Design the sequence.
């Protein structure tokens, strides 16, 4: 998985929760991070067992790097409180989730495990996975706001084709979430946007039991709702707002607002939030306070990654943030 630039940084700087050659210790420690589970070494080379687990924890999700060295069987049953996006970095695994079975191979496919489906796995020797744990509550809340009703169970088809356009998008987004989590001073507003972005990708791009509801055309929300959304975004863009918050302020279901806003403005709600944050950054830099730095201004505006913020700023205003700040201080 050479395309994921954050892996080595996580391997060296993430919070190392597990580093043991004892199976019972690994079962207990990893069970405390995920959920209680059955863990057994199944291969002949039991002496090769070495459980390693690093993670970064965020609001509503965590990013984990896990390996066992030897071949192991893992049986957590139903995950209950979270979804697990498992991306093989090295090696292979056999994953049974509900009635389906998937052979995952690094660079080819991944799995998305649903909390209400029974799961059982065989990680082959040398298998290592990047695992994005998505807490069940925020995912269900996002879908609830999309369809404007209680979703009940959300159950995905487990297999994810990483060579498909949606699979490539999920891979890039997971890497962006990882890199952002490892960067110091990353604003919560930016991380919240990334969390909801992955949720949106999963719900819109993968097969699950609520696809029929999402496939039905959404009614037009009308110009008043779009204006309310604009007003809310302008007033709150630097905070950790979600698209669900914007829809609530607009007074219509999220999916209705998404479609109406795109038709009326020609871009998405998240693009509107990004634009509002860039405008705030511009005003902050032009004010040119004596001790202000570009990094401080970028993070205060909720933009997050310095490099990406600088690129977007130059695309929008024709100069870099540092050039704007330098000009105002001269």
Sequence:
């Amino acid at each position: 998985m050479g395309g994921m630039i954050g892996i080595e940084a996580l391997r060296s700087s993430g919070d190392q929760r597990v580093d043991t050659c004892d199976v019972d210790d690994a079962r207990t420690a990893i069970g405390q991070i995920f959920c209680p589970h059955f863990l057994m070494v199944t291969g002949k080379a039991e002496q090769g067992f070495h459980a390693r687990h690093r993670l970064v924890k965020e609001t509503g999700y965590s990013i984990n790097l896990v390996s066992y060295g030897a071949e192991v069987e893992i049986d957590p049953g139903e995950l209950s409180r979270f979804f697990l996006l498992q991306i093989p970095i090295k090696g292979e695994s056999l994953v049974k989730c509900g009635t389906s079975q998937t052979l995952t191979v690094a660079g080819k496919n991944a799995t998305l495990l649903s909390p209400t489906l029974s799961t059982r796995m065989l990680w082959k020797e040398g298998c290592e996975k990047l695992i994005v744990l998505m807490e069940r509550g925020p995912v269900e809340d996002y879908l609830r706001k999309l369809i404007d009703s209680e979703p009940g169970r959300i159950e995905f088809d487990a297999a994810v084709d990483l060579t498909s356009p949606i699979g490539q998008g999920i891979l890039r987004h997971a890497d962006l979430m990882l890199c952002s989590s490892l960067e110091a001073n990353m604003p919560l507003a930016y991380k919240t946007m990334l969390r909801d972005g992955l949720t949106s990708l999963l719900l819109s791009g993968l097969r699950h039991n609520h696809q029929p509801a999402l496939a039905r055309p959404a009614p037009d929300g009308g110009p008043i709702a779009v204006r309310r959304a604009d007003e809310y975004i302008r007033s709150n863009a630097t905070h950790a707002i979600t698209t669900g918050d914007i829809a609530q302020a607009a007074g219509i279901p999220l999916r209705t607002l998404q479609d109406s806003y795109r038709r009326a403005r020609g871009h998405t709600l998240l693009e509107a939030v990004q634009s509002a944050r860039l405008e705030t950054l511009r005003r902050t830099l032009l004010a040119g306070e004596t001790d202000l730095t570009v990094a401080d201004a970028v993070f205060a505006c909720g933009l997050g990654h310095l490099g990406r913020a600088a690129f977007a700023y130059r695309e929008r205003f024709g100069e870099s943030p540092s050039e704007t700040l330098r000009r105002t201080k001269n």
Remarks:
- The mean pLDDT is 91.
- The radius of gyration is 22 Å.
- The CA atoms of residues 57 and 80 lie 19 Å apart.
